[in-house]
Design goal:
The structure is a homotetramer. The first copy, chain A, is 36% helix and 19% strand. The first copy, chain A, is an alpha/beta fold. Chain A has a 7-stranded parallel sheet with strand order 4-3-2-1-5-6-7, sandwiched between helices. Chain A starts with 10 loop residues before the first strand and ends with a helix.
């Protein structure tokens, strides 16, 4: 778990399915990316589409820093909006890398991959806020109604 | 996801906390290890104590093959009962390796690490049976009452 | 091996020891970082000191993008000059990630870790130029006298 | 680096190309596997053909324990002779896992992948003996003429 009291900005992983159900989740991801970037947070994602793409684009539109940790080995797999792209070749094992690289996790939507990232974060003591996702016990996972609420919860946990 | 129609025996990962609550889970892990080994299944675990140790010991007592995929780098961290010990140095990222190395997953008890393994397995289409664990949707995760039931479910899914 | 004909800039890993022998290697690393950044290349390193720190600082001083892939789990382990820092927790296994994330490798100095990165790159068909490093067969590894020569070799191989 | 003073037998990784040049290297790998197994050593390989297959078969023929750490995700990719097969899905990153899982490394033949494993072992302080391989500095890498000599060197280093 990276220390956030440092010269580094906070890193928040925005995780969620590449094909979320409904536009609400995608909209929330874009909003989350934008708000995080506006607070100087580096946005990390798994680099693909859906929630990941929306979060990156939301952050990029306000000049934020975005990092994609791809499961595959080809940089071209990254969706637009990711400034730095690392093809890990780890497959789903990169979920653990996404979590490890983050000081907090914002989960949107309810895929199995998303659940694995929430669980790995909770296991490591990394704060998690979730919107439209799995029903899991607080305080490890704070269930929120909106992206704005989730961002506020995480910024508070990160001491910002 | 390894193919199970092969010269290789099936590999089943028995996953669960190193400090499970109550003896029932530990007893179930030992029973699961024993039953799996009696059916010629290789038992893979995360190599530490609690559920992992009990499953390995149950399998070992009937002459089964047991494999530990440790999070750390020291072979000595493995609990007794593991015949082959691989120190991965991956930390919690080894959870993904445990799942990847298995044809099916038997989850006992309800830790966050366990949840990450269930989720990664469900994501990859690896069959999961769970006893005393998280309440998750079937058919990806089949909730069972006993170790015997869980083993039967998985053997059936593996075509044994 | 990432494809370099894309919307992405080229990524070059600058690899070498955290405690290089003599200032010449450190100076060459700084020069390499600067030249790569001036050509729009993203500089990837293992994130620690010595060659890694010098390359990052050289790139940063001309406004380049620099990425640290740390072996440990703490972002604070990164040396200054790295804009984006990913703590991988992979230990020396992150050497393979450094190589995988790069379109070409520039090796400076002669540590064992550096040799592992050169070998992994050559294995994957990633171009390697080396200065003051191991004596290895061309064309997989092109031995150069200066950072400027090495950068020129790699830019040519990357079609820039 | 695993501690070898323990209840565990020593683990030696036999590394080398899947398509070695000449039968001498393959024969040496088979001999190495046999000798190691006769001394109670667990033989770890990268699980594929050539040197890896020959070492596993040599060990298996005398009842030894053999472990394959495959680069891919399909257990069927393992060559015969490997008793326990772990599909890692790590690609060439599994080279680091092969080294990490071993108390010593025996390298045969001269591929780039082999060189990466030798370098990673030397970096970690794991003893290496090499036959028909790269010309590297002693004592980190002990160059030997035969498999028997290499096995003797490593057993001595392992205190057997």
């Amino acid at each position: 778990v990276p220390d956030t009291e440092s010269v580094h900005p906070p890193y928040v992983a925005v995780v969620g399915p590449s094909r979320p159900e409904g536009v609400a989740i995608t909209d929330a991801a874009r909003e989350a990316g934008r708000l995080l970037a506006e607070h100087g947070v580096v946005v990390v994602t798994g680099g693909l589409g859906g929630v990941m793409a929306a979060a990156a684009q939301g952050a990029e539109q306000v000049g934020g820093t975005t990092v994609a940790l791809l499961p595959g080995t080809r940089r071209e797999e990254a969706s637009p909006g990711h400034a730095v792209v690392v093809p890990t070749g780890l497959g789903e094992m990169r979920n653990a890398l996404v979590v490890r690289s983050a000081d907090a996790v914002l989960a949107l939507g309810g895929g199995w991959g998303t659940l694995s990232e929430i669980a790995l974060a909770a296991r490591a003591g990394v704060p998690v806020a979730a919107v439209g996702s799995w029903d899991l016990p607080e305080p490890a996972v704070v269930t929120c109604s909106t992206a704005a609420e989730a961002v506020a919860v995480l910024l508070e946990r990160l001491g910002r």
